[in-house]
Amino acid sequence: MTSYLRSWISSVPSLGVTSSLPGAQPAPNIIEVPPTEEDDEDEAATLRGDEEDGHVDDSPSAFPSLDSAQRAGSSKEITSPAIPRILTDSELMPPPPLPGLASRRPGTSSVSSASSSSLLRATKKVALAPGQGVDTLSRIPMSVLRQHNKRDDAWSSFNGKVYNITPYLPYHPGGEKELMRLAGRDGSKLFALTHGWVNIDYMLDECLVGFLVSDS
Ligand code: HEM
């Protein structure tokens, strides 16, 4: 552009811009060689990474790059992952056993007396002796709960469930005396304050007698 203006100005003598100035040198003749279309294409091809013979290399770069720290840290060569084999039925793991409560029906005991004692030993659960458990779960008003406050007939309520705690008294790690404080009462708050992490529903499952309802 500059050279074009210069050549235009010097070619118009009437303007006399250069010649009228004292001591001014005549503008040098600048010859510009416009780039040919061929040169442009060569440059673009170099930027694209084309080969000399016009072949286009579309193969991806190595990832991670060949001299990367990731490769240096790994001793193994990266190979494609093996396709897992589909196992046959006989090779598969057997299904887990049914959960203990799944087969239980309301009002019936799910375990026989023999398996009940082995269960007690294995899991430290407490079960009522045969004949002492209840056949059906009842709605128990607070006034009824209060009557069951003797050592040999102690009921207590926890989170709306009423349990016969008498069979558990000898096993309580905190002692019978502490547990008897709850006899004939709703023990939810005291229990939660003492050891809320203890799973009372699991431990006294077999001692459940019913659900606490309001007196009406
Ligand atoms: C039916 C109701 C209850 C059940 C099923 C029960 C159950 C348990 C269990 C499983 C432990 C051992 C916990 C552990 O080591 O982490 C324990 C400890 C204890 N419980 Fe209870 N508990 C009951 C009610 C109570 C109540 C009402 C109190 C007192 C107000 C009480 C006082 C204690 C104490 C002081 C210990 C610690 C004993 C020790 O480590 O020396 N518990 N109880």
Task: Give the gist of this structure.
The chain has helices at residues 2-10, 17-20, 37-48, 69-73, 113-123, 142-147, 176-180, 188-195, 200-203, and strands at residues 138-141, 149-150, 153-158, 161-164, 185-186, 208-213.
Structure description:
With 216 residues, the protein is an alpha/beta fold. The chain has a domain at 133-213: Cytochrome b5-like heme/steroid binding domain (Flavocytochrome B2, Chain A, domain 1, Roll). It contains 9 helices and 6 strands, in the order H-H-H-H-H-E-H-E-E-E-H-E-H-H-E. Strands 1, 2, 3, 4, 5 and 6 form a 6-stranded mixed β-sheet that branches. It is elongated. Residues 14-19 and 110-123 have low confidence and may be disordered. It binds protoporphyrin IX containing FE. The site of protoporphyrin IX containing FE has 18 residues, from helix 7, helix 8 and helix 9.
- CATH class group of the domain at 133-213: Alpha Beta
Helix vs. strand class: alpha/beta
By CATH, the architecture of the domain at 133-213 is named Roll
Query: What's the β-strand tally?
Result: 6
**CATH H-tier superfamily of the domain at 133-213:** Cytochrome b5-like heme/steroid binding domain
- The helicity comes to 25-40%
Bound molecules: protoporphyrin IX containing FE
List the helices and strands in order.
HHHHHEHEEEHEHHE
Region (Disordered): 15-117
Family: Belongs to the cytochrome b5 family.
InterPro entries: Cyt_B5-like_heme/steroid-bd, Cyt_B5-like_heme/steroid_sf, Cyt_B5_heme-BS, Cytochrome_b5/Flavoprotein_Rdt
Biased composition (Acidic residues): 35-55
